[in-house]
Amino acid sequence: MTKTLIRGNEALAEAAIRAGCKAFFGYPITPQNEIPDYMAYHLPLRGGVYLQAESEVSAINMVYGAAGTGTRVMTSSSSPGISLKQEGISYLAAGELPCVIVNVMRCGPGLGGIHPGQGDYFQAVKGGGHGDYRLLVLAPGSVQEMADLTTLAFDLADKWRNPVLILSDGILGQMMEPVEFSPEEGPLAMDKPWATTGAVNRKPNVINTLDIVPESLEKKNYALLAKYERIKREEIRWEEKKISDADLILVAYGTSARVARSAMDLARGKGLKVGLFRPISLFPFPYPQLKRLACRKRQFLVIEMSGGQMLEDVRLAVEGRSKVHFTNRLGGMVPTPQDVLETILKIREGGGPGENSF
Questions:
Q1: Most buried in the list 121, 221, 270, 343, measured by CB within 10 Å?
Q2: Which CATH number fits domain 4-234: 3.40.50.970, 3.90.230.10, 3.40.50.300, 3.40.50.150?
Q3: pTM listed for this prediction
């Protein structure tokens, strides 16, 4: 196949169209504006509907309506905009409506800045809205994965009848790399008997998240929790690099994982046995895989552009079997491979940042 040199946000949008996305509702915010821009031009030309809503709140509720018809639908935003969508995201999860939501993260809190960050991890993987719900969360680490994980996201959304969140960041959204796209899918003939597509020979379908009978609502909640447990068993994704002999494992996702990979290569060049563990699914998080790697002779270094959010999940995974170190940058600053290498060398000397370093 021919590769195309393309920006990350545009690769994601193109992949969504090829995956059968037929509706996009959004609102502009930096650094994700290339996604709605691309969809505004290309989606109508290929049989879809693009609509810029009057707000993020409106956009996510339009997604609810389109998803209820069984249409493959997507919205995108960046950190503050995703916060505004949280109530609607909770409704989508409660209604078991498949859709794809993209967060091209920027630094915060509040309005913060337009530079990249990773401070939305808790919001994404723990359920940022109200109630007991979960999203499947995928974290691309390259422009190729911006495309590939978008295709996967639509398939997972339909498979599990659940919203899927792609957690990208401002660097991945703006960088350009060669991408090999999957062939465009033809008209999708999916069996969605739950969809509100009109009723002639059956009773009408009703999608509703309100249930004021406690016993009934409890039953629905238990059913959702059971689905999330199945997702935890079946949909874990991760990548390992040079793990087999490593006595220090770097753990990072997204842009931070790209930095970590370069730092690993620098450390290996100095004869240090350093590996990389990259979670690709943030929910479900690869707890069993990290637990398997933990032992008293091996340490971990978590690298994030946040105050230490994924760090908590790494600690839970290793269950005290290994020492967990942490290094980070905030405010839109990006750690460099040399920064990480310096931290690695300090750990080797016994003076590196420890578990409570953030």
A1: 121
A2: 3.40.50.970
A3: 0.95
